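Design request, tokens follow.
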């Protein structure tokens, strides 16, 4: 499904972006997918709401947890051009206790091991237990515990197109945005510091 720049411009109060389909990268296992216009509208509204707290508005990431984990649902969106690159991302095991591949619930509670909804600011790169990672700050009441819960972006062995193809589900994180090894370099380069990740389910 294509969304015209004109209709998106109107739907989001004049913010310049577009939901355009792009080819799935070679490392993604799924049929072609684009950003949900509703999700994009919510993300752009969040970017506007938190504009003062987010230094860089050129690229945003949208984690669309209405999709199953086997689908590329972590979308990097160039706000000016509408170009989209989509990647696999795991959700928290507390959000999917039965390991169905579908996010059942969000939680901001400590020790919930769940994914939290809302807008996040990327706070820079570091090297930790999972290698190169991105620190995050939660900007909404629904994800305000992100720092204390150590919710970050990192790579994980249980996220890969091979895993999705073999099992129809990815593994689960403890609430972090866990990406494949193949996806991490592009994500680090494009949203490394001072940009927004928006997570939701519509």
């Amino acid at each position: 499904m294509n969304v015209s720049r004109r209709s998106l411009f109107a739907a989001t109060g004049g913010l310049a972006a577009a939901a355009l389909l792009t080819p799935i990268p070679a490392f993604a296992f799924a049929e072609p997918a684009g950003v949900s216009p509703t999700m994009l509208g919510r993300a752009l509204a969040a970017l506007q709401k938190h504009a003062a707290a987010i230094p860089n508005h050129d690229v945003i990431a949208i984690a669309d947890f209405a999709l199953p984990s086997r689908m590329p649902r972590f979308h990097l969106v160039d706000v000016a051009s509408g170009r989209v690159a989509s990647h696999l991302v795991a959700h928290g095991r507390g959000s999917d206790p039965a390991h169905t591949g579908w996010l059942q619930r969000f939680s901001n509670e400590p020790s919930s091991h769940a994914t939290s909804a809302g807008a996040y600011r990327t706070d820079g790169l570091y090297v930790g237990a999972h290698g190169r990672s991105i620190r995050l700050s939660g900007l909404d009441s629904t994800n305000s515990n992100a720092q204390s819960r150590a919710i970050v972006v990192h790579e994980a062995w249980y996220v890969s197109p091979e895993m999705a193809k073999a099992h129809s589900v990815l593994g689960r994180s403890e609430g972090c945005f866990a990406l494949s090894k193949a996806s991490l370099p592009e994500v680090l380069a494009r949203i490394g510091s001072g940009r927004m990740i928006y997570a939701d389910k519509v």
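Comment from the thread starter after seeing the answer: thanks! The mean pLDDT is 87.
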